[in-house]
Amino acid sequence: MSPIPTVPPEPVGGDTTRTIIMAIAAIIALFALGVAIWAATSARRSANNSGISAKTATEALRRMGNKEHDFLGPVSPGVINAVREPGPDGSGGIAYGTLTVPRLYRARATRRLRGGGRVDFAPPSGELWPNTPWKFRIEELAAGTNGLTTEAITFRFWPPDAAQTRGNPWGCPCDAASADQDGTGNGHWSYTVRVGILPEGFEPTAGGRHSAG
Q: Is 54 left (phi over 0), alpha (psi -120 to 50) or beta?
């Protein structure tokens, strides 16, 4: 008879070795998973921080632009003290006002009349030059009266264009809409001032002018 084949005995400690190997593999897998989770969390945090930083920078620029906007705008004189000058043929005279600005602007103005009317006017060239008084006609006065039908004047201003500044224009860095940059809209800056009449022969006071800001 042929001998019955026998299976070699398994080395002592075989189960233990496999267990150790499987445990090491599990530890490595857990470590890899932890690294992946950490990387994903870091990426999200970095993206969030980048978004916050971008928003912060944008807000800071907006605030700086608005501060520059306030600095570049003309300062309201508060009131235009009109001067009455003699008119022809013994009329009541003509009321004039003056306005001085600190830098070059394009400008337009609107007289607001008692009772709700309005009259638009502008400098002859459409621009005001720095520290050069603009003398403008307010209205003709009726004989024997010292009152005005003009109650207030709204002035509107825009930065100059390249042609007006001989190729060296200045602009406003704010985020305000610039759709009316042609000088026909609400103005990049604007203010409304009261108008008062002074006796004939008086000169404008500081209230009719303002200096550089």
A: alpha
Count of other CB atoms within 10 angstroms of residue 41 = 10
| pTM value > 0.70 | no
Q: Is 118 helix (H, G, I), strand (E, B) or coil?
A: strand
Cβ neighbours, 10 Å, residue 26: 10
Domain that holds residue 92: 76-172+182-208
Is 68 in the same domain as 119? Answer: no
Residues 202 and 152 in one domain: yes
Beta strands (DSSP E) in 147-205 are 150-158, 189-198
131 and 100 together in one domain: yes
**Could you read off the pLDDT of 78-106 as tens digits, one per residue?**
899 888 888 777 677 889 999 999 989 88
In this structure, the answer to whether residues 63 and 82 fall within a common structural domain is: no
Neighbouring-strand partners of residue 110: 120, 154
CATH of the domain at 115: 2.60.40
Query: In this predicted structure, which of 23-37, 50-64, 198-212 has the lowest mean pLDDT?
Result: 198-212
Task: Please measure the distance between the N-terminal and C-terminal CA atoms of the chain and give it in whole angstroms.
Answer: 122
